[in-house]
Amino acid sequence: MAINYKDAGVDVDAGQKEVELIKSIVSRTQSKDVLSSLGGFSGLFNLDLSEIDNPVLVSGTDGVGTKVILAHKLDKHDTIGIDCVAMCVNDILCQGARPLFFLDYIATGKLVPEKMEEIVKGVAEGCIESSASLIGGETAEMPGVYQEEQYDLAGFCVGVVDRDKIIDGSSINEGDIIFGLSSNGIHSNGYSLVRKIVFDHCDFQLSEKFDELDCTLGEELLKPTKIYVKEIIELLKKIDIKGMSHITGGGFYENIPRMIPDGLCAKIDASVIETPEIFKLLKKWADLKDEDMYSTFNMGVGFTFVVSEKDKEKVHDFFENSDVKLYEIGKVVSGEDKIELNF
After folding, report:
1. Is the dihedral of CA 113, 117, 118, 120 positive or negative?
2. Dihedral angle sign, alpha carbons of residues 185, 189, 193, 195
3. What is the distance in angstroms between the CA of the first residue and the CA of the last residue of the chain?
4. Of 20, 43, 81, 116, which sits most exposed with the smallest number of CB within 10 A?
5. Which residues, 6+ apart, have CB-to-CB distance to 13 below 8 Å?
6. What's the pLDDT score for residue 161?
7. How far, in Å, CA of 133 to CA of 31, rounded?
8. At what angle do helices 80-93 and 229-236 cross, to 10 degrees?
C-alpha cells in the first residue's frame, strides 16, 4: 500500500490553508518598506536610512518558554504571540534600537490552521504595538517531535539605531537616577517555577478565582508581556537615556547589572514598587524568600533605565498621563557589586 506525506503526519494542504487565513492579519502590520508578499521564500524590507547618519542594525531572537503550556491548557492562543514579539523588541530596545521587522517560527505536532491563525493574530498585535512589520515566518509540522496538540513559538527581530546614539551604559555615572516601568504581570519568564508551584505544589486549577486577583488564575498567568517600544522611543527624543535593562529571566539581580559599568552599583529600593498580587500569592504559596522572587521574576517592573539627575523631572512629566506606571527605584552609587537591592 502506498504511503504519502499526509500519512506520515504532515498535511501540506493545511499549511496552505494557514497561509490564506493569515494573509490579511499580516498585512495590517506592514509598512511601506515591505517589498515582499506572504508565501515567498524570504521577506524583503527596504531600509530607509534618510534620518540616520550612521546606521547600525540591531537584532534579537527569543521565545516564550514554557508559557505556551498555559496557552495549551486554556486553549487560548491569541496573546502568546504578543509575548514572543515583546521578548525580542524589548531586548533590542535596550540599545536604543527602533524595531523594523519581525519573523516568527511555529513548530507543532499537527498543523491546525485555525489555531495557527490565532497565534499569528497575537504576533501581529505585538508587531503593531512595536511598529514592526511582520515580513515572514515559518510553520513547521513535526510529528514525532511534538505531540499533536503541542507547539512552540519563537521569533526574530531586526531594528536600527544611529551609531552615535547606541545605548550601552558606558556613560552612566555616580548619582544618576534609575527608573522602572510597570509590568503587566509575570510576562514570559519563570513559568517553570510558576507551574511547579501552581500545579505540583498547590494542585490548583486554572479556572480558580482568588480574592486578590481580578480574573481567574489562568487568565492572570496568560496576560501578555508589556511592550515598551513606543514610550521609550518617544522619550529618547526628549532626553538622553544612558542605560536600559529588560527585566526578563534572572529578574533584578541578573538584568539590572547588565547596564551598570564596572566600579558602579545600582542601589535599588524595591519598596516603592506596587508589586502585583500574583507575585505575592506565588511567594506565599511556595514560601519563597524575597531574594528568590527578585532573582526569578520582574516583581512589577518590566523595564528599567538610567538618566542624569538633571533629567529626572522631565521623565516624571513624560509619564504623568501614561498608561505605564513609572517608579523612581534607585540611584547609581560607587561599588563593585553592580546591584544592591533593598526590599
Report:
1. positive
2. positive
3. 69
4. 20
5. 6
6. 97
7. 6
8. 20
299 CB neighbour count, 10 Å cutoff: 24
Give the C-alpha separation, 160 to 74, whole Å. Answer: 37
Determine the 3-state secondary structure of 105 from DSSP.
strand
Distance (Å, whole) CA 220 – CA 162 = 38
pLDDT < 50 regions, the chain: none
75-100 b/e with 16+ CB inside 10 Å = b?
ebbbbbbbbbbbbbbbbbbbbbbbbb
C-alpha 274: how far from chain center: 20
Backbone angles phi, psi at 256, to 5 degrees: -60, -45
Residue 3 has what pLDDT? 65
Give the model's pLDDT for residue 6: 73
Which three cell numbers, joined as nine digits, stand for 143?
510529528
d(CA 67, CA 77): 11
For residue 89, which of 236, 226, 223 has the smallest C-alpha distance?
A: 226
Please name which of 291, 300, 285, 297 lies closest in space to residue 343, comparing C-alpha atoms. Answer: 291
β-pair type (55-63, 151-162):
antiparallel
DSSP sequence for 278-335? HHHHHHHHHT--HHHHHTTS-TTEEEEEEE-GGGHHHHHHHTTT-SSPEEEEEEEEE-
Q: Are 94 and 137 in contact (CB under 8 A)?
A: no
Which helix (H) or strand (E) is 252 found in, with range? helix 251-255
- Three cell numbers written together for 251: 529578574
Beta bridge partners of 334: 264
Residue found under cell 506525506: 5
In the prediction, which pLDDT does 38 show?
Answer: 81
Q: What is the pLDDT of residue 292?
A: 97
Closest by alpha carbon to 33, among 96, 99, 100, 97? 100
Orientation of helix 229-236 relative to helix 113-130, angle to 10°: 20
